[in-house]
Amino acid sequence: MSSIGKRNRQRKKGMRRRKKGMRRRKKGMRRRKKGMRRRKKGMRRRKKGMRRRKKGMRRRKKGMRRRKKGMRRRKKGMRQRKKGMRQKERNETEKERNETEKERNETEKERNEIETKAREEEN
Q1: Labelling 22: which of 43, 67, 108, 121 has CA 20 to 30 A away?
Q2: How confident is the model at residue 20 (pLDDT cuts 50, 70, 90)?
Q3: Of 36, 37, 31, 3, nearest to 15 (Cα)?
Q4: Composition bias, kind Basic residues: at what positions (predicted)?
């Protein structure tokens, strides 16, 4: 076996002994991460298994879990009541709109009748 091969094997042994998280490559040995292989620059993304939590996103202990202020559950009954109120308002406004529309139509009709009478008189 060549001396280079021996040296390589020795180095590998040393790397195996290290803890997984501590594994480091020498500068010249740098390699792309598994998920980064054969990916275009714009599509760079980690594989599912390689996802790591960011430091700030570390999981809290179970007892520490709290809902954020905005995430507080809104009670269903309240939501439905509000929904009903909104519907009622909508109906009222719709009624008013319809009434005004009717009045406008009536006035329009009257105006048209007057105009037609005037034209007939002119003729």
Answers
A1: 43
A2: low
A3: 31
A4: 1-85
